[in-house]
Amino acid sequence: PVLAGMNGSAIENFSCVIYNIFLMNCTWQAGRDAPADTQYFLYWQNSRDEEEMECELYIKDENCRNIGCIFQNVSIGIEKAYFLVNGSSKDSLIQFYDEYIDLYKIEKLMPPSNITVNCDEIKNDCIIQWQRPQISHSNKDKCFKYEINIKYK
C-alpha cells in the first residue's frame, strides 16, 4: 500500500506502558521531516467490539505539539489493542503510524504489598511474607518470581 503523506513526517519511537494497575502512558516523537506546524492525534481501540476513541489527555512539548497521551481506567483484554497516530499540517499531508499491541506485555507490575518480617533470635530465622502484586489483566494465576535482597545492619 502507498502511504499518503510526506516521507519522514510520521511519528517515531512510539511506546506505551501500563502502570498503577489501570493507567497507561503512550509517548512518541515528531517525525524528523515533519513541518514545524504538524500536530499529532492518537486514536485507539481496545478491542474490535469497542469504539475507536481519541486520546482525552495529551502530553505536550514546549511547542504545544502532542507527544504523548495519558489514559485512565484502562482494562486489559485478551485481544491486541490498536493504536493509530495521524497528523495534520497546513503545508503538507502527514503520514500516519499504527500498531497493534498486546497490553499485558507492556504492564509494569506493582511491588508486592503488606510485607511483614518476623524474626526469631533464638531459632536464628526470619519469616518474610507478602501479598502478590495487583495486576490489571485477567490471567491472575501466572507464576510470579520474587527477588529478596537482605542487607544486614
UniProtKB/TrEMBL annotation:
Topology of this chain in the membrane: Single-pass type I membrane protein
GO MF term list: cytokine receptor activity
Annotated keywords: Glycoprotein, Membrane, Receptor, Signal, Transmembrane, Transmembrane helix
Localization in the cell: Membrane
InterPro entries (alphabetical): FN3_sf, Ig-like_fold, Short_hematopoietin_rcpt_2_CS, TypeI_recpt_CBD
Transmembrane helix is among the record's keywords: yes
UniProt keyword Ribosomal protein, yes or no: no
Gene Ontology cellular-component terms listed: external side of plasma membrane
SUPFAM superfamilies: Fibronectin type III
Type I cytokine receptor cytokine-binding domain span: 13-106
Name the record gives this protein: CSF2R factor
Organism: Falcunculus frontatus
Lineage: Eukaryota, Metazoa, Chordata, Craniata, Vertebrata
Gene name linked to the record: Csf2ra_2
